[in-house]
Amino acid sequence: MVSIPSFKGTYEQNTLNLSSTATEITSIWNSKSLPTTPLFGTDGIRGKAGELLNAPLALKIGFWAGQVLRQYSQNPGPVVMGQDSRNSGNMLGMALSAGLTAAGLEVWNLGLCPTPCVAYLTGISETIGGVMISASHNPPEDNGIKFFGSDGTKLSSELQKQIESGIRGTADFPTIHSNWGQYYHRPELVKKYQASLYSPLTPGHFQGMKIVLDLAWGAAVHTAPEVFQTMGAEIITLHDEPDGERINVNCGSTHLHTLQEAVIENKADIGFAFDGDADRVLAVDSQGRSINGDYILYLWGQSLSKAGLLPENIIVTTVMANLGFERAWEKQGGKILRTKVGDQYVYREMQRTGSMLGGEQSGHILCPHYGMTGDGLMTALHLATLVKNSGVSLAELVDQSFQTYPQLLQNVRVEDRDRRVNWQKCEPLVKAIEEAETALADFGRVLVRASGTEPVIRVMVEAINAELADSWTENLVLAVQQHLA
Q1: Helix 157-167 crosses helix 55-72 at what angle (to 10 degrees)?
Q2: Which of 170, 218, 401, 474 is most buried as measured by Cβ atoms within 10 A of its Cβ?
């Protein structure tokens, strides 16, 4: 039987004492209870807390992540850990820490912080890796675990598979036995991340700007206001306390209506909405219009291109990017490279091509000039700087950019994980997609995919006019509901 970890020592340092053996840890959870589909999705492991993601599984994840990191990392240092405000975060954090320290690793727990904070501190320190406990934009009852390598980038799919093989009892590498690791509470390190955000900028540069921040009751409630105030902005904050029961609920980057109303009501210059872990951001202009990642990439791309900082004028984005964005960028002599949905795929393509700007329509933006992972705060600061330097409003910059094609995105809930992941085996749905693609030809696009973060099938139709987009979206949603849901 595995004993419950006991915490001793000061607030700054706790020692995790475990009497478990590696054999006991690997037998805590019966592998037959795990889903047959892969645990790791597009952004780590996600699920409803207490069901798929519970303490025994988190303990096992921590142990095997520790084993894999020790096998493949060149750095012998600690694991940097952070979490958003979800109520299940402490439970998962303690279980993960128990597993990691049982594998002989030291844990530095930052506490509440944005995901890019973990990535940044992992990359600049002599660490063995990092881990964030968050389900990003998902509802409060969900949670997730995602790992970073010692360079601060998301752990490769190959190493994720190695971790999963250990969890499932099929690992083909030996476990490493050593002394127990130690656990330290290190919230003061978050200040280093904050300083890195405005170090390339000029403190006070936002004087005269009124900015509304929707913090989604999540990870950025402390960091974002302080950073924008340091930059000199007058700020108005919404949903600005950590609240695990309300994180992302009708707020943040997936629900912009409150921010839009606040920007108009307060006559603000700009508004920014973050998701629960602040690795993405969407903007709202002074007219209350939503400004998504396509517009952010276009405007930041123009700025970088003029400064000679955008090699070959390449922007890397995903299959979700709007055709209007692509064609407008090509008219300027630029090139758009598309990947699968997920910032890890964008990052890999950026690495392969040497690109310096990439991201997703949802607001995950990567710019290696300033960071190696998607960072909502960094993106918001640079977009605000771009607006300030232009001498005109964000609304004017958007009006001068491009017109989007009508694009509809519908989510259809499919609880059965196997049916959802293997949707391409559903012949009636595949046939319906082929019919839509034939009808739209060069005047639109169809994209159907299983979400890697939620139990839904996403149906996206983009067409030259709204009537076509509406019609084919309705047809495809009906096909999913009839044959999968």
Answers
A1: 130
A2: 218
Which residue, chain included where needed, has tokens 């771009």?
386
Identify the DSSP state of 187: G
CA-to-CA distance for 404 and 464, rounded, in angstroms? 9
- Cα separation of 200 and 469, whole Å? 42
Q: Tell me what pLDDT residue 28 has.
A: 45
For β-strands 335-339 and 314-318, DSSP reports them as parallel
HSE of 225 in the Cβ direction (CA atoms, 13 Å)?
A: 15
CA-CA distance, 271 to 293, in Å (whole number)? 14
Nearest Cα neighbor of 236 from 200, 203, 264 is 264
Q: Rounded CA gap, 379 and 392, in Å? A: 19
Beta carbons of 53 and 144 less than 8 angstroms apart = yes
- Give dist(CA 426, CA 366) in Å, integer: 35
SS3 helix, strand, coil % of the chain, rounded to 5?
A: 40, 20, 40
SS3 296: helix
Residues annotated as catalytic (active site), given as ranges: 136
Contact assessment for residue 414 and residue 457, using Cβ atoms and an 8 Å cutoff: yes
| Mean pLDDT (whole number) for 441-460 | 90
What is residue 7's predicted lDDT score, i.e. its pLDDT? 38
Report the DSSP pairing between strands 210-214 and 142-148: unpaired
Tokens describing residue 54: 């519970």
Residue type, 256: L
Cα 400 to chain centroid distance, Å, stands at 29
Q: Distance between CA atoms of 300 and 303, rounded to whole angstroms?
A: 5
pLDDT in tens, 58-111: 999 999 999 999 998 877 899 999 999 999 999 999 999 999 999 999 999 999
Cβ burial, residue 467 (10 Å; 0-12/13-18/19+): exposed
Q: What CA–CA distance (Å, rounded) separates 67 from 80? A: 16
d(CA 319, CA 95): 37
Distances (CA, A) of 132 to 6, 140, 436: 23, 16, 40
Is residue 320 within 8 Å of residue 447, measured between CB atoms? yes
Amino acid 341: pLDDT: 86
| E strand map for 6-70 | 6-8, 13-17, 40-41, 44-48
Which residues make Cβ contacts (< 8 Å) with residue 16, sequence separation at least 6?
A: 5, 6, 7, 97, 98, 101, 107, 180, 181, 182, 183
Least confident piece of the model among 238-242, 375-379, 417-421: 417-421
Residue type at position 97 = S
Pick from 324, 261, 337: which is nearest to 292 by CA? 324
pLDDT tens digits, one per residue of 355-409: 999 999 999 999 999 988 999 999 999 999 999 999 999 999 999 999 999 989 9
pLDDT range class, residue 478, cuts 50, 70, 90: very high
